[in-house]
Automatic annotation (TrEMBL):
This is Dihydrofolate synthase/folylpolyglutamate synthase. Keywords: ATP-binding, Folate biosynthesis, Ligase, Magnesium, Metal-binding, Nucleotide-binding. Gene3D superfamilies: Mur ligase, C-terminal domain, Mur-like, catalytic domain. It comes from Caloramator proteoclasticus DSM 10124. Its EC number is 6.3.2.12, 6.3.2.17. Belongs to the folylpolyglutamate synthase family. SUPFAM superfamilies: MurD-like peptide ligases, catalytic domain (SSF53623), MurD-like peptide ligases, peptide-binding domain (SSF53244).
């Protein structure tokens, strides 16, 4: 099996859709020799901020000299982005080898009477086996969706982290903050510590109840004190007092206010690891934070004019995008290229976006769940704003790039859409450079 055949197999499994539960992944891991039991895992759940927090934590540990496995989803441009060691993507050859081995195990699991494993379960099993084979020191593991029944929850981590919780995937996780928080809190393990991002009261009470049941000590990020000293499009500098330690002039390149909270969440996790006996120097903290980048999250892709890529795919994400645009690009002409999935609360998202932008390009993301560009255009025009619809992403990007009637061009919507945009932009600007 080569890499192309491996990806085709993974995509073919997508027809089985989402099917939550841990029995299948537990059996797969058992047949693989339970690789998850040989890993020291930092498990990260939440609605927004998971990927950024994973990046901050992993980069600090890498700077300390540890060998760190990193598992995130979805990918933006390449499947291999999902599985990394010290920020180096898994090779195509390793993907092919793992899938070839796991394919036989999947056949066994099905013959034994289990429902067919999902795409995410198969990829998660590949990642766990890969990290165990490579003998990494830590794995920073991002939950795919929810937490309690997510395939990543087969692990028993050193510690868990829960980032910001808000409304998303309500058709799966529940239609209240309490129900969503219950699913996220499912990653809390008995006698293992939890780092908790500042939450609304409804979410916090649910998480605290679960933590008490599991005898899990909570380290509250809200108990830290931070002071932002500089906040520009080039980066943010801030001071933090956390667990009686004071850090002056920490710097991050990922911008917008929520990234400070994500960085402090990561720093709290590092303090917990120190309490557990692991060595992490202040130097590694400073350098790890400053070196961290996470594409597609208020990413300044280009300047003059500015091009911003943001994978805000729910109301909270869009609200934070609006805050950032008002913060960094006041009195600038903003053009918005927007695509969204129809199972999102796109009406509220449009209401937020029209507060800062009069000029839109609507697109249809590559997904069976996509809202049609024409339908999105109508919603925007009903609010008195201008909109042009494109079903083809490449045409939309090229049209917008060639008509420079803006100071800031923003691409926002699903992460899958941002991945497509990034590939197209890379191709356009590579040609220009040549």
């Amino acid at each position: 099996m080569d890499y192309r055949e491996a990806l085709e197999y993974i995509e073919s499994v997508g027809k089985f859709g989402m099917n939550f539960g841990l029995k299948r992944i537990e059996r797969i891991c058992e047949l693989l020799g339970n690789p998850q039991e040989r890993l020291k895992v930092i498990h990260v759940a939440g609605t927004n901020g998971k990927g950024s927090t994973v990046t901050f934590v992993s980069n600090i540990l890498i700077e300390e000299g540890y060998r760190v496995g990193i598992y995130t989803s979805p990918h933006l441009e390449r499947f291999t982005e999902r599985i990394k060691i010290n920020n180096e993507e898994i090779s195509e050859e390793d993907v092919a080898g793992l899938i070839e081995e796991i394919k036989e195990i999947i056949n066994t699991v099905v013959v034994e009477g289990y429902e067919h494993p999902t795409e995410f379960e198969i990829v998660t099993a590949c990642a766990l086996k890969y990290f165990a084979e490579k003998k990494v020191d830590f794995v920073v593991l991002e939950v795919g969706l929810g937490g309690r029944l997510d395939a990543t929850n087969v692990v028993n981590p050193l510690l868990s982290i829960i980032t910001s919780i808000s409304y998303d995937h309500t058709n799966i996780l529940g239609d209240t903050i309490e129900k969503i928080a219950y699913e996220k809190a499912g990653i809390i393990k008995r006698n293992r510590p939890l780092v908790l991002y500042p939450q609304v009261e409804e979410a916090q009470s649910v998480i605290e109840k679960r933590a008490e049941e599991m005898n899990s000590k909570i380290y509250y990020v809200k108990d830290a004190e931070w002071d932002v000293k500089e906040d520009t499009v080039k980066g943010i500098m801030f001071d933090v007092k956390i667990k009686n330690r004071i850090y002056k002039d920490l710097r991050i390149r990922m911008i917008n206010r929520y990234q400070v909270k994500n960085a402090v969440t990561a720093l709290m996790a590092i303090e917990v690891l120190r309490d557990l006996g692991y060595s992490v120097s202040d130097k590694a903290i400073y350098e790890g934070l400053e070196k961290s980048v996470w594409p597609g999250r208020f990413e300044i892709y280009k300047e003059d004019p500015y091009i911003v890529l943001d994978g805000g795919h729910n109301v909270q994400g869009i609200t934070e995008l609006i805050y950032g645009l008002n913060k960094y690009f006041i009195n600038k002409r903003i053009k918005m290229v927007f695509g969204v999935l129809k199972d999102k609360d796109y009406i509220k998202m449009v209401d937020e976006l029209t507060k800062v932008c009069d000029d839109f390009i609507t697109v249809t993301p590559e997904s069976l769940r996509a809202l049609k560009a024409e339908d999105l255009k109508e919603f925007i025009e009903e609010r008195g704003k201008r909109a042009v619809a494109f079903d083809n992403m490449k045409e939309a990007v090229e049209f917008t790039i060639n008509n420079k009637d803006y100071d800031v061009l923003v691409f926002c919507g699903s992460l899958y859409m941002i991945g497509d945009v990034r590939r197209i932009l890379n191709s356009i600007f590579k040609k220009e450079e040549e």
